[in-house]
Amino acid sequence: MVMKRTVLFSVLVLLLFAMVGCEKKADNEVLPEIKIKKILSGIPSKKISENGEIVIINSQEELNQLFPNSTLPKELVNLDFKRNTVILGNYGVHRGVAKVEHQFGKVGDKYEYVLTIILDISFVAEGIGFGIIVEKLPNNSEVMFKVNVIE
Fold this sequence. Notes:
Layout: H1 2-27, E1 36-39, E2 54-57, H2 60-66, E3 84-91, E4 96-107, E5 110-120, E6 128-135, E7 143-150
Parallel strand pairs: 5-7
Antiparallel strand pairs: 1-6, 2-3, 3-6, 4-5
């Protein structure tokens, strides 16, 4: 009788540890590597978001809220949102923009989008609209956004 209780208790303890182990794996879900599919050009420098912030778009409805159909950039027409996520923003600068570089990658349990803006005094100073199309981000993914301005 004591032996049966010991075995039953051991089995229950093992099941409890197995359930706790499964819960921890779900909390620490490993994010997939996500690549930039396309760097968008022709994004208007109108106010898409607060200066220096991004908008993550995962559906046609969200995209239509930002752009009336008549002003939708051609790269975003008929985009497959089952496979893609769009990240857009705008940034004001005090000098002209010579070049813009985009980087997107995984940092720990988040994603990071780094926008590097290279300024040139010989260009007209104006704000820029920017954006990228990336592989579909997992639901509720957090994207940190950083801007490097090089004068």
